[in-house]
Write a structure and sequence with these properties.
With 154 residues, this protein is an alpha+beta fold. It is built from four helices and seven strands. The strands form two sheets. It has a five-stranded antiparallel β-sheet with strand order 4-3-5-6-7. A two-stranded antiparallel sheet has the order 1-2. A hairpin with a 2-residue loop joins strand 1 and strand 2. Helix 1 runs antiparallel to helix 3. The longest helix is centred in the middle third of the chain and has 20 residues. The chain is globular. The N and C termini lie far apart (44 Å).
């Protein structure tokens, strides 16, 4: 399989995982926490190769670390070294335009994963879902959650 196909597969896996209901932090849905913390532009960028996030909130930094590790494992399964990447970003846009049936409550959001190798191979994959902002006291955590994690995230 070519490097481009391997990167495309990894990007698609990250994007679909990100919008899945199993993307949680401390028992709470990560996109809801990121939506709460999103700046006025309603966007969050996780720069996996740089290990940074904008805005650099505790929730965004934790999600960035989780997805950097997710990507490392995905690349390893395909025989791609982390050092071959020049860039890996996850761009999340809230209140994104969306056509099609409404499948959940909240506002639409789009997750776009972009990967670029040092060998000039660049790919991206996107996934869309719906999300509500996290509000303390409105939602209960998933079973087995660690309340100290969410307390640390504000």
């Amino acid at each position: 399989m070519s490097l481009n196909k391997k990167l495309k597969h990894a990007a698609a896996g990250l994007a679909t995982s990100f919008v899945s209901r199993n993307n949680d932090v401390g028992g709470y849905w990560a996109p809801g926490l990121l939506y709460r913390d999103a700046a006025a532009g309603l966007a969050v960028q996780l720069r996996l190769t740089d290990r940074t996030a904008a805005p650099a909130t505790p929730a965004a930094m934790l999600v960035m670390r989780n997805y950097a590790e997710f990507l490392r494992r995905a690349l390893r399964k395909h025989g791609v070294d982390w050092e071959e990447l020049a860039l890996a970003t996850v761009d999340v846009r809230f209140n994104a335009p969306h056509t099609g049936p409404r499948l959940a409550c909240g506002e639409p959001f789009t997750c776009t994963v972009s990967l670029a190798s040092k060998a000039d191979s660049a790919v991206s994959a996107s996934a869309t879902s719906y999300c509500q902002r996290y509000e303390a006291g409105r939602y209960t955590a998933r079973g087995g959650s660690d309340a100290s994690v969410i307390a640390a995230l504000g």
